[in-house]
Amino acid sequence: MPHALNDLVIAWYEENARDLPWRGPDASPWAVMVSEFMLQQTPVNRVLPMYAAWLERWPTPTALADDEPGEAVRAWGRLGYPRRALRLHAAATAIRDRHAGEVPDVHDDLLALPGVGEYTAAAVASFAFRQRHAVLDTNVRRVFARTVDGSEYPPQATTAAERRTATNAMPVAAETAATWAVAVMELGALVCTARTPRCGDCPVSALCAWRLAGKPAYDGPPRRGQTYAGTDRQVRGKLLAVLREADGPVLQASLDAVWDEPIQRARALDGLVADGLVEPVADGVYRLPTGAPVST
DNA sequence: GAACCGTGGCG
DNA sequence: TCGCCAAGGTT
After folding, report:
1. Mind listing the pLDDT tens digit for each residue in A40-93?
2. Could you name the CATH architecture of A28-127?
3. Which bases of strand C have any atom within 7 Å of the beta carbon of a protein residue?
4. What is the dihedral of CA A248, A254, A255, A258, to 10 degrees?
5. What pTM does this model have?
6. How far apart, in Å, are the Cα atoms of A46 and each of A41, A42, A53, A68?
7. Chain B, protein-covered positions (CB within 7 A)
8. CATH of A138-212, one of 3.40.50.720, 1.10.1670.10, 1.20.1250.20, 3.60.15.10
């Protein structure tokens, strides 16, 4: 969006921002990082209770790192993509061992942590440490696609052109840039939404390229569908749910009960073991990972 | 770069 | 109803 509109977006944010627990000066960098992991591909409303429980139980990276990775997987509950729990535990371990237990404030150090990619590194650096970074999540990318490019949706993968657009529009002062970043994201989440944008409530609609072009429909390649029923992902989810809800090790029979087809069931279980989400204890006995070397 | 990785709510 | 979508990352 044009630079001149940054003030409008920030003013809109001050007036309309949701009161989320990971925002504001009382949220530690660790709290911000936990929220960012949980929010990857997961709606805010489902994250809120898990976020509170996690921070109460593990208020610091070291607290989490000193616990078993399986406990992180268990406490992840039904947030989805449980590898995120494992990676958050691994990130906490790296922070404990390499950064003296403090979430690093250097972008490249953040990027080096497990489960932290381009978006999350920029988000933590910006939100927690008030630095100047282009924070390109799906909301921000959609806002720029519409206001600047005149397209309904951004490309599938983040492009250099998008990074250029965001960087060019970004306020120069770090503190302002940090507020602007979360403001644009919030605008995308609340007003410039994917399905039914509320252009009547948008502070920049007057100069939005997409609206001015008559809101042309998306005409790019089919957007990635996510079939689920009958896939390995569904089986993995069912298997892991059994492990999560059990107090200790689980017998093969309990796992076999969740899916009829034995080949796919075995493949899914093997995948979970390969991913480190499940640990074989003995023949036909499994449990959530302890973090200790597997005895053979 | 495409495919894969969970789960649930909403239009 | 059911396809689309949600603050992505890794291989």
Report:
1. 999 999 999 999 999 999 999 999 999 999 999 999 999 999 999 999 999 999
2. Orthogonal Bundle (1.10)
3. 3-10
4. -130
5. 0.96
6. 11, 7, 12, 24
7. 1-2, 4-9, 11
8. 1.10.1670.10
